[in-house]
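Retro notes (design track)

What went well: tokenization of the new backbones is finally stable.
What didn't: we kept losing track of which sequence belonged to which structure.
Fix going forward: every design gets posted as structure first, then sequence, in one message. First example under the new rule, 423 residues:
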């Protein structure tokens, strides 16, 4: 495909779908990978991640042919719109891409570009591995106990964007419909009211839970915890839990996946779980937030609706050192878009100070998806070694006695040097 403002690199091949498979990708050693640097600190961490990923690819006998694509402020400058069609098409066509954070206005203005990208490309699982890196300061006594992966449903829930603004005819029409036609007898206060819908579907819930269970099986994990608030939102969150347990019960043999009975209310101490089986259990979201801190080592893989996943993965990220460290990726069928958990942190933007680790480790997750395990390990080792030697960006330096504060670019060069030394 030819693009209007995107420059396709002269060299490199496209990642394609393996013939005869539904979602398996065929990865050349010189793939073309679209990259969005992002807004705010994206301008600092985007190029930094690019440099580190390039070094790790080269050290393992491969090359990345980057293709800059645009969203947010950079797209406004080039196209006078925030999310040009050709950006979405380039990512769709090239299958695997990486992006920095994009700014979303609060309360009014355009809808989240991140949510739009995830929905348009049907990247239904937001996956955030949360693991401790040696040397990173953490508020926890035993941060190394955290080794969790969160699977967040990425396309529906209150993020679907079905909302009506207070004071509009639309919100009054919806109120009338709910009160008169649906015989709603609860409280909706008089006067202006903002309203929204929370769709949770069987398809969306089941494919997310399936993805989490498959990951647990493939990666030798012990447990998948479905996290919801089904005691209050019975027909959305509760239904997510029921559909999730149905997947565990009906789609896998018992010796592979064990759906824990009544796990919401009963301890599973006495339950006879087949050896090597992945246990699938349910937990309520509010309780989960405290257990994650108090009984960190009991949790492994979490699968949740969109909003719970957003809250819980940020909280989990804080336990292993904060947003500057926490990586993520959005997965669909035969597609992946890597992105850090953090946002565009406007007050730190353009000052060559932000921590690029989260975006670098998101790239590591992308390498895992490409099957580049050696390059992925190299990145982890180099990041860990750099941080352990006390060379860190401002966010970690302010928590570490005797550490050396480096600019984004200096820290990036340290990691690249370490990659070269290790390889
Ligand atoms: P944020 O951008 O994640 O930043 C919050 C704070 O976290 C920063 O002020 C900074 O703390 C710390 N932080 C985040 N990333 C860091 C990094 N790489 N290095 C060092 N410190 C880092 O959250 P926000 O301020 O709530 O959101 C700002 C904008 O980003 C909003 O428009 C939001 O919608 C958007 N957003 C986008 C995404 C995405 O693109 N996927 C995700 C979340 C938010 P200190 O000030 O203490 O240094």
């Amino acid at each position: 495909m030819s693009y209007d403002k995107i420059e396709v690199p002269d060299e490199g091949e496209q990642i394609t779908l393996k013939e005869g498979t539904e979602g398996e990708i065929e990865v050349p050693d010189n793939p073309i990978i679209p990259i969005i640097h992002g807004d705010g600190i994206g301008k600092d961490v985007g190029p930094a991640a690019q440099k580190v990923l390039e070094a790790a690819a080269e050290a393992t006998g491969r090359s990345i042919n980057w293709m800059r694509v645009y969203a947010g402020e950079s797209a406004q400058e080039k196209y006078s719109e925030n999310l040009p069609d050709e950006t979405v098409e380039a990512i769709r066509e090239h299958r695997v891409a990486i992006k920095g954070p994009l700014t979303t206005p609060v309360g009014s203005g355009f809808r989240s570009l991140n949510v739009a990208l995830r929905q348009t490309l049907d990247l239904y699982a937001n996956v955030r591995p949360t693991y401790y890196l040696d040397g990173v300061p953490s508020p926890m006594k035993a941060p190394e106990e955290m080794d969790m992966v969160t699977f967040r449903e990425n396309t529906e829930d209150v993020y679907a964007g079905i909302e009506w603004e207070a004071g509009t005819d639309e919100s009054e029409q919806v109120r009338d419909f709910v009160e008169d036609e649906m015989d709603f007898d609860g409280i909706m206060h008089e006067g202006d009211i903002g309203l929204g819908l929370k769709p949770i579907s069987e398809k969306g819930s089941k494919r997310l839970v399936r993805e989490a269970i498959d990951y647990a099986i493939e990666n030798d994990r012990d447990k998948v915890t479905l996290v919801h608030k089904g005691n209050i939102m019975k027909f959305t969150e509760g239904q997510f839990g029921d559909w999730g347990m149905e997947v565990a019960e009906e789609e896998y043999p018992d010796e592979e996946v064990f759906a824990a009975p009544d796990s919401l209310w009963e301890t599973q101490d006495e339950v006879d779980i087949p050896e090597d089986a992945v246990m699938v259990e349910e937990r309520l979201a509010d309780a989960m937030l405290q257990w994650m801190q108090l009984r960190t080592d009991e949790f492994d893989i979490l699968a949740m609706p969109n909003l719970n996943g957003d809250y819980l993965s940020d909280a989990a990220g804080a336990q292993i050192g904060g947003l500057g460290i926490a990586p993520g990726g959005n997965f669909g069928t035969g597609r992946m878009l890597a992105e850090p958990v953090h946002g565009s942190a406007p007050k730190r933007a353009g000052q060559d100070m932000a921590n690029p680790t989260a975006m670098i480790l998101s790239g590591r997750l992308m390498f895992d998806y490409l099957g580049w395990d050696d390059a992925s390990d190299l990145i982890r080792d180099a990041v860990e070694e750099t941080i352990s030697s006390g060379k860190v960006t401002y966010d970690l330096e302010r928590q570490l006695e005797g550490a050396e504060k480096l600019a984004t670019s200096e820290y990036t060069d340290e990691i690249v040097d370490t990659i070269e030394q290790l390889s």
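Added context from the reviewer: Residues 41, 45, 101-104, 114, 323-324, 339, 342-345, 347-348, 354-355, 358, 395 surround NAP (CB under 6 Å).
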